[in-house]
């Protein structure tokens, strides 16, 4: 009888060990067998545009929110004191151009996530020759050579195809201010080869009227003009 009881007891112990081992094995399944839900993009994100201005580090912060399936730049702030006109133009730029930010929110979020939520390619700090000029959102340098850096901001609302209009924000000892009518509604195409003269003008399918300008008293002064034609390979300056 004792032997019978011993056999029953050993059977119970063996059964318990198998059940416990089974449970432990179940809780340690390989990770690739577990269905993990794909990370969902948050309904808002902020990306920054780093700025180097007068040898100091600043940034512009843009808050993007999901509006249905679209991307809405809902607010723009900066730790560099800027005139209200600057924010208005910049906001209009993002509202009117799908090239600046993806209109599809999911794509915009993934794109900026891959960029670590920074856009350094929006800003240029060097003078570009008119033949090598590629429009940037911002140009930062001392345009009038008064010792203070200025900012040229692309104004897409007033631009046309092949005619990128910029707005001048002048730097000075009292801060940054809007320099109204600096380009007099003309497009900005870069500099001549010397880097001393700004090239402006207007272009259409047939010709491009160009003006060579120097800065005198904070204003553009035209010193030469030239016309390039689509049917000719002759270029000005």
**What's the number of extended β-strand segments?**
12
Morphology: globular
The succession of helices and strands, N to C, reads HEEEHHEEEEEEEEE
Low-confidence parts: 5-10, 12-37
Distance between the termini: 115 Å
SS-based structural class?
A: alpha+beta
Radius of gyration: 31 Å
Strand order of the largest sheet: 4-5-6-7-8
Helix count from the secondary structure assignment? 3
Residue-averaged pLDDT, rounded?
A: 86
Helical percent range? 10-25%
Beta strand %: 35-45%
Largest sheet: 5 strands, mixed
Task: Briefly summarize what is shown.
The protein is an alpha+beta fold and 237 residues long. Helix content is 20%, strand content 36%.
Which features characterize this protein?
237 residues; alpha+beta; 5-stranded mixed beta sheet; 4-stranded antiparallel beta sheet; globular
Please, could you describe this protein's structure?
- With 237 residues, this protein is an alpha+beta fold.
- The protein has helices at residues 2-26, 84-96, 105-114; strands at residues 44-53, 56-67, 70-78, 123-124, 138-141, 150-154, 166-172, 175-179, 187-191, 198-203, 207-216, 219-229.
- The strands form 3 sheets. It has a 5-stranded mixed β-sheet with strand order 4-5-6-7-8, covered by helices on one side. It has a 4-stranded antiparallel β-sheet with strand order 9-10-11-12, with no helix packed on it.
- Strand 7 (166-172) and strand 8 form a beta hairpin.
- The radius of gyration is 31 Å and the shape is globular.
- Residues 5-10 and 12-37 have low confidence and may be disordered.
């Amino acid at each position: 009888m004792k032997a019978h009881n011993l056999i029953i007891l050993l059977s119970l112990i063996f059964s318990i060990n198998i059940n416990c081992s089974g449970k432990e094995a179940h809780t340690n399944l390989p990770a690739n067998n577990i269905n993990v839900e794909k990370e969902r993009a948050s309904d808002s994100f902020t990306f920054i545009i780093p700025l180097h201005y007068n040898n100091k580090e600043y940034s512009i912060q843009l808050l993007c929110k999901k509006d249905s399936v679209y991307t809405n730049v809902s607010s723009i702030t900066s730790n560099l004191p800027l005139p209200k006109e600057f924010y208005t133009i910049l906001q209009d730029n993002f509202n009117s151009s799908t090239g600046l930010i993806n209109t599809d929110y999911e794509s915009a979020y993934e794109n900026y996530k891959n960029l670590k939520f920074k856009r350094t390619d929006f800003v240029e700090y060097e003078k570009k020759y008119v033949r090598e000029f590629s429009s940037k959102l911002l140009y930062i340098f001392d345009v009038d050579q008064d010792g203070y850096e200025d900012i040229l901001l692309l104004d897409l609302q007033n631009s046309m195809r092949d005619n990128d209009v910029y707005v001048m924000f002048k730097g000075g000892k009292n801060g940054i201010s809007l320099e109204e009518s600096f380009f007099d509604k003309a497009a900005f195409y870069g500099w001549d080869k010397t880097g001393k003269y700004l090239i402006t003008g207007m272009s259409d399918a047939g010709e491009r009227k160009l003006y060579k300008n120097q800065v005198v008293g904070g204003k553009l002064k035209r010193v030469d003009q030239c016309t390039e034609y689509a049917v000719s390979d002759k270029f000005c300056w």
